[in-house]
Amino acid sequence: MPKFAANLSMLYNDVDFLDRFAAAAVDGFKAVEYLFPYAYAADDLAARLQTNGLQQVLFNAPPGDWDAGERGIACLPGREAEFRDGIGQALAYAKALSCSRIHVMAGLLPAGTSRVDVHATYVENLRYAATEAAKGNVNILIEPINERDMPGYFLNRQDQAHALIAEIGTPHVKVQMDLYHAQIVEGDLAMKIRRYLPTGHVGHIQIAGVPERHEPDVGEINFAYLFKLLDAQGYEGWIGCEYRPARGVALHATSDGLGWLKPWL
Ligand SMILES: O=C(O)[C@@H](O)C(=O)CO
Ligand SMILES: [Mg+2]
């Protein structure tokens, strides 16, 4: 049976961030993920998890200047010192939140550069992050993201991510397989699950309906079929529900749209 985590950056947006933990627990979630914890004290977040019987299963390393449009700095030459500081901060939060997965965003290709130009920087930064993460038994995740949502993002395809993992050569870097992005970029989701799950290199899965990124039962993907396939592949990790609710009315927008989840709880 798949296990689902509420993505608190996208779900329950009609309540304050710290109140989203309780809202997720009331709807039956046992785990949460979100983009960034850094605006809050780790102790406060840990208390919300504990009070609501929730597990933290994923968050992102500091992404550079998000408000200025940066989407990670792992592939940016010249930002190595900031990258290392960010990994240190993320690992401190991971320890306080007992979280064993950190998503390290690659970043946008700097103007005038190609993927080849920044490849070495990206690999070197991930090797550093993985070495530090391994000390606390944490895995570093890399996520292929579609360029319609994030134009210029360095990492877009599942095969690109798996080739990088082979090159980096450590079990502490894994792929965050977001099926929403995968469908937009390359499709053929069932075959990709059959191909990549047995490698043991998929460390987390996320879902949303395509193309609007709404509830998983809205749009072109048959998720019930894919959940059974993930079970058949023996996937025991979490599935992050990373979508923008569109079904319900204000204040109940997320809960009203969770009909798709009920058979799987
Ligand atoms: O898919 C996404 O957008 C997220 O998982 C993420 O970490 C970057 O925005
Ligand atoms: Mg995602």
UniProtKB/TrEMBL annotation:
Ligase found in the keyword field: no
Family: Belongs to the hyi family.
UniProt protein name: Hydroxypyruvate isomerase family protein
Pfam families the UniProt entry points to: AP_endonuc_2
NCBIfam families, alphabetized: OxoTetrIsom
Source species of the chain: Roseateles albus
Sorted UniProt keywords: Isomerase
InterPro entries assigned: HPT_OtnI_isomerases (IPR053398), HyI-like (IPR026040), Sugar_Epim/Isomerase (IPR050417), Xyl_isomerase-like_sf (IPR036237), Xyl_isomerase-like_TIM-brl (IPR013022)
Domain Xylose isomerase-like TIM barrel residues, every copy: 21-263
Keyword Metal-binding: no
Molecular function terms from GO: isomerase activity
Origin superkingdom: Bacteria
